[in-house]
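Chapter summary example.
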Amino acid sequence: MLSLDEIESGMYVTHKNTALRYSVVDVGEDEVLLSPEQEGLQDLVVPTELFCQEFVATDRFSQHRGRGRGRGRRRTGGPAQVPTGPKCRGKIKKMVRDRGFGFIRGDDGKEVFFHRSGLNAADYDALSEGDNVEYVVQEGPRGPRAENVRQVAEVAAG
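The structure predicted for these 158 residues follows.
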């Protein structure tokens, strides 16, 4: 059985009964946000106590994240990977603060998911619904995901 101090963002786990593999996206006081490795499945939010009983830690051989040395809930060591790709602009459509994620409607009309792990904590805490933001879209296991989300000044419409 996993203990709370063993759980960290970026680790890989396998569900004991289904053998489905997930990566830990975020660890909260009461729940753990998991991202499935298998295409077509959605993120999973599991109560921490149930997570510790139902999942086992597995190796970290996937290309998602690869650190895994420190304990706790923050990234450790080395410079953070900076997302590459064209910068997009849009507005925060919805914030789900208690779960640490939200959605952005891009200027192109497309909606994209973002998670607080894709930006620093101060930037996440400063965001609100309706804010204009700039971000880089990265392809995640379940589709596009906004990374490096930053609030920007509103551009006057002409």
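To summarize the output: Residues 89 and 157 are 14 Å apart (CA to CA).
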